[in-house]
Amino acid sequence: MPAGRSARQPRSGRAVRVLLISAHPLESSLHGRLRQTILEVLSQRGHEVDDCDLYRENFDPVLDATSRENYFDTAQNTIGVASYVERLFAAEAVILCFPVWCFGPPAILKGFLDRVLVPGVSFRLGSDGRMHPNLRHIRKLIAVTSYGRSRLEAFWMGDPPRKMITRYLRWFIAPDAAVSYVPLYGLHRSAKEDQSAFIQRVAALIRKV
Questions:
Q1: Do residues 97 and 31 lie in contact, with contact meaning Cβ atoms separated by under 8 Å?
Q2: Which helix (H) or strand (E) element contains residue 192?
């Protein structure tokens, strides 16, 4: 069982194997509190949780020259990230907890996607040369995010993080998977009460996993 994973007997229903991928350097941040809340609720519900904190694990997000050269070589393209690939394949549900910076995910999370979602992992190439989704075992995808800017400003920019979750990552997983995107806009102007309400909103959603 990978480091960071814990399990209890489910209180009701079937336990789900959940991969929680978080990306914020400060434990004292809103996302640090969100991560703890998500872990607590999943544990209370009896799910098997793999807590993947990219900063704590010192994940290397750099797709270097060798990795890029081997990108389409499925015998070599997971060198250095094989353990993360194993954790992704073991999951039935994936929860992403990250802030939106410069209208995108933190570099460490973007690097995770670049290095881990390679051919043979997120998709496979068929004999017809077309890409075919390869994460069909994942039946639930949740993203918990925060923006410094307003919803209107994010809309004007096209809201790339939302599309990354609801369109791009959505394509790789089960066709009938449940996908939830849970954002808090205007974080820099929000009151503590607003942040507390957002945490409760997230907790309520996670209880349904």
A1: yes
A2: helix 192-206
The C-alpha atoms of residue 163 and residue 149 are separated, in whole angstroms, by 17
Region 16-206: CATH code: 3.40.50.360
Q: What is the three-class DSSP state of 53?
A: strand
Q: Where are the domains of the chain?
A: 16-206
pTM above threshold 0.70: yes
- Per DSSP, the residues of 83-148 read HHHHHHHH-SEEEEEEEEBTTB--HHHHHHHHHHS-BTTTEEE-TTS-EEE-BTT--EEEEEEEES
Give the Cα separation of 135 and 25 in Å (integer).
28
Identify which of 119, 159, 115, 117 has the alpha carbon closest to the alpha carbon of residue 138: 117
Asked whether residue 11 carries a pLDDT value surpassing 50, the answer given is no
Q: Is 145 exposed, middle or buried (0-12, 13-18, 19+ CB in 10 A)?
A: buried
CA 174 to chain centre: 16
